[in-house]
Design a protein that fits this description.
Layout (H helix, E strand, L loop, with lengths): L3 E5 L6 H9 L17 E6 L3 H10 L3 E3 L2 E6 L14 H9 L3 E7 L15 H32 L3 H18 L14 H6 L8 E6 L10 H13 L2 E5 L1 H7 L4 H11 L5 H12 L2 E7 L3 E8 L4 H6 L3 H5 L1 E7 L1 H6 L3 H6 L4 E3 L10 E6 L2
Length: about 375
């Protein structure tokens, strides 16, 4: 099960530098001119989770396999992108394929790096991008409503549902609010997601600050934090240049470097965790002598569907899940200790998998 977060922003805000650090490669060209990223770059990154190493140590696992997230570096949007300005149409299509948006905002003052608007104002930059996405959504909604008219006349219930949801989104957008502000009933959730509206996607604001402001932020990042709080969104402060430097160091060197800068952890770790949380994801583990592995599922996933992430046969033939909480696994010194202490539970099809569960699935082949 893959989850994609698109990295967006105006040109020259540090997107490609951030992507390079995220994927530990130089796959994305970072240069001081607009549209240096012509095709979206895709990279998978491990989700940092110290629990996995502890589980592997106790179980004597030979291999550790973390869960992963996909990040897509999408070339810089500009004002007018919704009308095809710059390389707008292509970029908007790339965003549509993502599950969430990490919106990188320039929160650093540096004369050597040009700004397409000739000023540094991250809140205004965020508004520019949001406006383009809202205009693109309105145009998309108008086209879809025209295409649905004939189906609705023919009594197509799904088409009628789509029209109702599109009208709700249209009303919000015309009022100057993104589609994610619309409250959708549970029975409409699947149909709503299938609309793939750009402004329905959850947003994480990434404040890219100068190296000497990575630990404290600055006035620009605080303005973004205020905006995010008002929207009910999340924000993180990060220095893309520092993260790119850290990505070239080994673990010990990176820890020393972070300590010198007064940082408790790498900004990328916070960014990845925030993206994970933004999508409402949780982690469960499978642990044994061969490997300790983390698996990603949406919060609220029943046990059979969680098993299906490993293999479809696990879901189809699901019998039960032997379950130990992470804390009990650690406290009892592993699976056998948890069993002896009565901490292993047998859960059925209705069980909702919790973050940190250590699971063993039984199924009919």
């Amino acid at each position: 099960m893959g989850f994609k977060t698109g990295i967006v922003g105006l040109p020259n805000v540090g997107k490609s530098t951030l992507f390079n650090a995220l994927t530990r490669t130089a796959a994305a060209q970072a240069a001081n001119f607009p549209f240096c990223t012509i095709e979206p770059n895709v990279g998978e990154v491990a989700v940092p989770d110290p629990r996995l190493e502890k589980l592997a140590e106790i179980a004597g696992s030979k291999q550790i396999i973390p869960t992963r997230m996909t990040f897509v570096d999408i070339a810089g949007l500009v004002k007018g992108a919704s009308k095809g300005e710059g390389l707008g149409n292509q970029f908007l299509a790339n965003i549509r394929e993502c599950d969430a948006i990490a919106h990188v905002l320039r929160c650093f003052d540096e004369d050597d790096v040009t700004h397409v608007e000739g000023r540094v104002d991250p809140v205004a930059d965020a508004d520019t991008i949001e406006t383009e996405l809202m205009l693109a959504d309105l145009e998309s909604i108008d086209r879809r409503l025209q295409n649905l008219a004939r189906k609705i006349k023919g009594g197509d219930n799904e088409a009628a549902q789509q029209k109702r949801l599109l009208k709700q989104a249209e009303a919000a957008l015309e009022a100057g609010r993104p589609a994610r502000s619309v409250q959708v009933d549970a029975e409409d959730a699947k149909a709503w997601n299938m609309l793939q509206l750009l402004t329905a996607k959850p947003v994480l604001y990434v404040c890219n600050v100068a190296e000497d402001e990575a630990a404290t932020g600055n006035a620009h990042s605080r303005a973004v934090e205020k905006m995010a709080a008002e929207q009910g969104a999340a924000s993180v402060v990060i220095s893309a240049r520092i993260e790119e430097e850290i990505s070239q160091l080994d673990a010990e060197e990176a820890e020393m470097f972070l300590s010198e800068l007064g940082l408790a952890e790498a900004g990328l770790d916070r960014l990845i965790k925030a993206g994970y949380g933004l999508l409402g994801l949780v982690t469960y583990f499978t642990v044994g002598p061969k490997e300790a592995r983390a698996w990603t599922i949406p919060e609220g996933t029943p046990a059979p569907q969680a098993a299906g992430v490993i293999h479809g046969d696990f879901e189809r033939g699901f019998i039960r899940a032997e379950t130990i909480s992470y804390d009990d696994f650690i406290a009892c010194g592993g699976e056998q200790g948890a069993k002896d202490a009565g901490k292993m539970r047998v859960e059925g099809k209705a069980y909702i998998v919790k973050d940190g569960d250590v699971l063993h699935f039984l199924f009919n082949a």
